[in-house]
Each structure stands twice: as structure tokens, then as C-alpha cells.
């Protein structure tokens, strides 16, 4: 890996494009290095993972409305939409939109955390949609997805967005554009312009994940992916973009991030170096914000050891800055303690999540968020006894670059009415690569089977799983079948413009 320093340049300094971050990203995309076998295997796992969580959400309002928006935009050859017959295709940017919302709706697919946050699986809907539309085979699709993951992970390692209240999808637009560029073997110049345009139009504030969180949380990455497809299309036609987008005097760093004096270091693969960043990412066993994954596992463990939860006086979760300030009491969001809060808000409340996981000894992507579940008096009582606090050591471990030190959990102290205490801690979720039960192919398939049960016919499940597990060998026609059909899928008939 090469560490690239990125800073603002005055217009009079005339920064050569070859020294710009967007160009260096485009160079990685256009490098024809082979994809490692273990990377290919993980790409397959994540396509299965995305399909699993999309199946579970396919009848929910946000994915249904996104699908209804997409379906009028028919196109041949086009791209498939989750749930729809395989021969009913739409324009690829609209397939990226509809499928991206379905994937993101339940907050249940993969994650990578470093200087910023990300769900790298959000790259897949856009890259796959373009592959289907343009007749790309499985081998090139794998390269595109591996590249999308590489660029997003590297940006997340180098540039913090959340400290400036910028939503993490600002890293997704450039990564999806780079992935599409790699898959299509586009010249560096074309991908360079697409990356810049994608960043320019996908920068938004983090209010989508603050306060009264709405379904836009699921739409935001789908929008970024849709914009990336359009950015590549414009660039392929010879259109340019604001440049230099990162380093410009009025650009991203100078006015949206840390200002003209700031310095960022972004690691990127050297020429000829394999793109392996997908192996640094991890998926979710539970449908909740990633920082809740390990704490759900710990809540189950601790709850099992307590005979009477009503005897608890107070629970304090000592954890990282991010967990405390985004999903903990440090957020100062009263909605996180409100039994009438939206599902999107509850999955960003570790107080609620820890209480329910203790009581139920598990977590379910629908039942655990049901309004009647959140309103149980005993749950509300326990929930309101929980608070979080930042522990500098957990913050340090959260940001550690050492895989053996990196931690996304915390230490939990429970005080009982009789004065006794219980203390336990967990560093990473059980399903994390360093956890007690790391996810392997069998777990991804099981997750898909579990979430697809009662939604996708078993024969259709078999067809999809058999197909995706041959991914690098697939022909262009077979890539066009990488979706799933839901029999009798209904729509709301909602009325909009389209």
C-alpha cells in the first residue's frame, strides 16, 4: 500500500491531475491486477448477504416505494429488481436505487469502521446493475466489486466525515464509480472524472442519522449509488467534473472537511498490488447498528446469568466515543429513550437494544423492533436504567489499526438493588473475523435461508444460491439472473410523479 497525503491547494498552485486523489483512485480502478481467490470468495459471500437482507425487507414500505419509483423506467436489456420477474428489467441507475434501498432498509449487511463508518456492501447494487445492463461476465463483475470495496475501505481509513457531520455515503459515490470503471475497463481519465462527479453530488449532512431518523437512512446510500451510475455515464460521454474535487481551493477538504490547512493520509494499493480490502470488512449477525453487534452478544450472555432483571438498579456501558455519541446517551437524543420511536431510531439506541437482548436472549430483525415490543412496561423500565459513557481505552481500541486490538464493544457494569454488581466485557461481535464464531460461507447461506423463508420459494432460493456460488465462471446472461423472484409480490399503488 502507498500512503498518499491529501491537502488543499490554491488555484495558483496548479496541482497536476496525476497528483490528485481522484486520479490515484482511478489508477487503482484501471490497474488490471488479478483478484485473489479468497477475495472472490468473499465477494460471493457479500452478494448472498445483500440478497438475504433484501429478501427480508422486500415487502416493507421504503423498498416497496423505491421499487414503485423504479419500475416505470423499463429498459432492455436493463437490470433486474429484487422481487420482480427476471425479464422485467429497468434502467440500471433505477435498479441500483430500488435494490440499494432493499439492501439497506434493515441495517443488516456488512460494515467497516475506521476513521469513518461505512457499509461497503452498498457498492454492490450499482455495480451489479451496470453489469447486467451492459452484459458483463462474472469475472469482470468480481473485479468491479472488489475495487468498489477497496476504494471505500481506503477512504474510510483515511478521511473522517462524521466529525464534520457529513454522512458516510460521501465515500460511497466515489467508490461505486471506481468499481464500475474497473469492471468496464474504462480509461483512467474517464474514471477520474466519474469519481469527482460522484463525490460532488453525494455529499450530504448526517441529519439523516440524527434525532427523528426516517427511512431516508435506507435511501441515502441508494441515492449515492444511483448518482455514481449517472456520473460514470456522463464521464463515458466525455463530460468532465469539478476538479480537483478533494484538493481544490473551494473543494471538499477546504470547505466541507477540516479546512485549507488540513492533511489527510489515504492508503491505496500500489500498481500491480491486489485489491484485498473486502477481507477487512465484516457483516452483521443481528439487524442493528454495527456498534450494537458485540453488545447484543454480551447482553444475551449477561441476561442469561440474572434470575430477576427487575432487581437491576443501573446499567452503565463503558464504550467508545462513537458508540456513546451516536447510539448511546451521549447523543442527547430523547428519541432514543422513547417507546414510540421509529424502527430507524431504535436500531440506533444501544439502551433499547441492550435491554431487549437481555430480556429475549436474542435479536430478531422484525420482532425486536415491533411497537408492542418497545412498549412493554418492564422493557421501558429496564431500558431507562441504562446509560453509556465514553472510555478512552475503548475509543483508542476502536481506532486501532492493529486487528488484534481493534474493538467495537465495551465493558458493562450492572448494579443491583442489593448493592451487588456484575461486570463483563466484549471486544468484538461473535460473528466478527476475530470473534467467537466468525462468519463463513455456511453462515451466509444460513442467513439467506433464514431471512428468505416464507418470502422466496425454496426452489428459487436454490437457483440463486447455485448461481452466485459459481460467480467467476458466469456468462453475461447468467449475471443477468443474479436476483430473486418473489411470487405474488404486491405494491401499494402509491402515487408520485413516475
Automatic annotation (TrEMBL):
Cited InterPro entries: MmgE/PrpD_sf (IPR036148), MmgE/PrpD_sf_1 (IPR042183), MmgE/PrpD_sf_2 (IPR042188), MmgE_PrpD (IPR005656), MmgE_PrpD_C (IPR045337), MmgE_PrpD_N (IPR045336)
Pfam families to which the protein is assigned, alphabetical: MmgE_PrpD_C, MmgE_PrpD_N
Location of the MmgE/PrpD C-terminal domain: 286-471
Region (Disordered): 61-80
Comp. bias (Basic and acidic residues): 61-70
Record domain MmgE/PrpD N-terminal: where: 20-263
Similarity remark: Belongs to the PrpD family.
PANTHER family xrefs: 2-METHYLCITRATE DEHYDRATASE, 2-METHYLCITRATE DEHYDRATASE-RELATED
Protein name: MmgE/PrpD family protein
Organism in which the protein naturally occurs: Brevibacterium gallinarum
Amino acid at each position: 500500500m502507498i500512503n498518499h497525503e491529501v491537502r488543499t491547494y490554491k488555484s495558483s498552485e496548479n496541482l497536476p491531475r496525476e497528483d490528485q486523489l481522484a486520479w490515484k483512485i482511478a489508477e487503482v480502478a484501471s490497474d488490471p491486477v488479478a483478484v485473489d481467490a479468497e477475495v472472490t470468495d468473499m465477494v460471493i459471500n457479500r452478494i448472498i448477504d445483500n440478497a438475504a437482507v433484501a429478501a427480508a425487507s422486500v415487502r416493507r414500505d421504503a423498498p416497496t416505494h423505491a421499487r414503485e419509483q423504479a419500475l416505470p423506467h423499463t429498459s432492455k436489456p436493463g437490470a433486474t429488481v429484487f422481487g420482480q420477474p427476471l425479464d422485467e428489467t429497468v434502467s440500471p441507475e433505477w435498479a441500483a436505487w430500488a435494490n440499494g434501498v432493499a439492501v439497506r432498509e434493515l441495517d443488516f449487511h456488512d460494515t467497516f469502521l475506521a476513521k469513518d463508518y461505512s457499509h461497503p456492501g452498498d457498492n454492490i447494487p450499482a455495480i451489479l446493475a451496470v453489469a447486467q445492463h451492459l452484459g458483463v461476465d462474472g469475472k469482470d463483475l468480481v473485479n468491479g466489486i472488489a475495487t468498489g470495496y477497496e476504494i471505500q475501505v481506503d477512504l474510510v481509513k483515511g478521511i473522517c466525515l462524521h466529525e464534520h457531520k457529513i454522512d458516510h455515503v460521501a465515500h460511497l459515490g466515489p467508490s461505486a464509480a471506481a468499481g464500475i470503471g474497473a469492471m468496464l475497463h474504462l480509461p483512467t481519465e474517464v474514471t477520474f472524472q466519474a469519481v469527482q462527479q460522484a463525490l460532488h453530488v453525494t455529499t450530504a449532512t448526517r441529519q439523516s442519522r440524527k434525532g427523528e431518523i426516517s427511512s431516508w437512512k435506507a435511501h441515502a446510500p441508494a441515492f449515492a449509488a444511483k448518482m455514481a451510475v449517472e456520473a460514470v455515464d456522463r464521464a463515458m460521454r466525455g463530460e468532465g467534473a469539478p476538479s480537483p474535487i478533494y484538493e481544490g481551493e473551494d473543494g471538499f477538504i477546504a470547505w466541507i472537511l477540516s479546512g485549507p490547512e488540513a492533511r489527510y493520509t489515504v492508503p491505496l494499493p500500489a500498481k500491480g498490488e491486489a485489491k484485498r480490502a473486502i477481507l477487512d470488512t465484516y457483516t452483521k449477525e443481528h439487524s442493528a447498528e454495527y456498534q450494537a453487534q458485540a453488545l447484543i452478544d454480551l447482553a444475551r450472555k449477561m441476561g442469561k446469568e440474572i434470575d430477576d432483571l427487575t432487581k437491576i438498579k443501573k446499567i452503565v456501558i463503558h464504550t467508545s466515543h462513537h458508540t456513546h455519541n451516536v447510539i448511546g446517551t451521549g447523543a442527547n437524543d430523547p428519541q432514543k429513550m422513547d417507546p414510540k420511536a421509529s424502527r430507524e431510531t431504535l436500531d440506533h439506541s444501544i439502551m433499547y437494544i441492550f435491554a431487549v437482548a437481555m430480556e429475549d436472549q436474542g435479536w430478531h430483525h422484525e420482532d425486536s423492533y415491533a411497537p408492542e415490543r418497545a412498549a412493554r412496561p418492564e422493557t421501558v423500565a429496564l431500558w431507562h436504567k441504562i446509560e453509556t459513557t465514553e472510555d478512552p481505552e475503548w475509543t483508542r481500541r476502536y481506532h486501532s489499526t492493529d486487528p488484534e486490538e481493534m474493538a467495537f464493544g465495551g465493558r458493562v457494569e450492572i448494579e443491583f438493588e442489593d448493592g451487588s454488581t456484575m461486570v463483563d466485557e466484549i471486544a468484538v461481535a461473535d460473528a466478527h473475523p476475530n470473534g467467537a464464531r466468525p462468519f463463513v460461507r455456511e453462515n451466509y447461506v444460513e442467513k439467506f435461508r433464514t431471512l428468505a423463508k416464507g418470502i422466496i420459494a425454496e426452489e428459487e432460493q436454490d437457483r440463486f444460491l447455485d448461481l452466485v456460488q459459481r460467480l467467476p465462471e458466469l456468462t453475461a446472461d447468467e449475471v443477468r439472473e443474479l436476483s430473486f423472484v418473489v411470487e405474488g409480490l404486491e405494491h401499494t399503488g402509491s402515487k408520485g410523479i413516475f
